[in-house]
Amino acid sequence: MNATPILEPSAAYALWADSYPAHAHNPVMRAEERAMLGLLPVDLHGQSVVDAGCGSGRYVRHAVERGAARVRGVDLSPEMLQRAAGALADVATSTHVELGRGDLECLPLPSDDADITLCGLVIGHLERLEPSLAELRRVTRPGGTILCSDVHPTGHALGWLRDFKSGGRRYAARHTPHLYSHWHAACSHLGLVIEHVLEPMLDAADIPEGARFDRLALDVPVALVFQLRRPS
Asked: Considering the entire predicted model, what is its pTM?
C-alpha cells in the first residue's frame, strides 16, 4: 500500500480548496464546531470579529449570522480565500466583511482590533504554538476573547491524518500536535487567561452508515478547544 503523501499546508489547501465546503463537513469538524459555537456569544451585534485562518469561511459566516458589526477573515491560502468569497457571496447581511491573505504568525491587522478572535483547526498546521498565539493576542483588544481549536493530540498519537482526496488520490496536510501543557505554558508566558477548555467527542449520529473509520475515535476526544481572555 502506498503511503499518503504529507504536503505543506499551502500546497495541501491549493489542492483541497475546490472540494472544501464552507461548513463542517466531517464528524470531527462537527464535534469541534459544536464546542466552538457553544462558547461563541449568540448575539454579536456591535462586535468586531477576526477569523484567523478562516479557510472556506465557515466561522466568518457564523459570526455574520450572529449579527457581528464587522468580520475580518485572514488565510494564507488564496485558493481557500476564493472559496470563502464564493460561499459568502449569497449571504445578505449588513455586516462589513473583509477577506485578506495573511500568515497566522504575522497577521495583516491592527493591534487591539477585535472583540472576539476565532482560530479554528489551524494552529496544528504550524510547528510553533506561541508565535501564533502572540498574534491572536495582539489583534484582540484588552478584555477581549480568543476562541481556538485544534485537532486533539490523541488523534496524532493514534496515527490519524488530516487527509483529503484530490484528482482521485489521497493526500494529507502536515500537522504538528500541541499538547495541553504546551498551550498552558504559552498562555502563561503571553499573559492569556485560560477560561474554558473543552475536549469534544464524536457523536455517533454524525458517522455515515457503513463508513470505515478507527473505532477508537468514539472513545477519545477528537478536538481541543480553548476560550482565552486577554486581560484588560
From this structure: 0.94
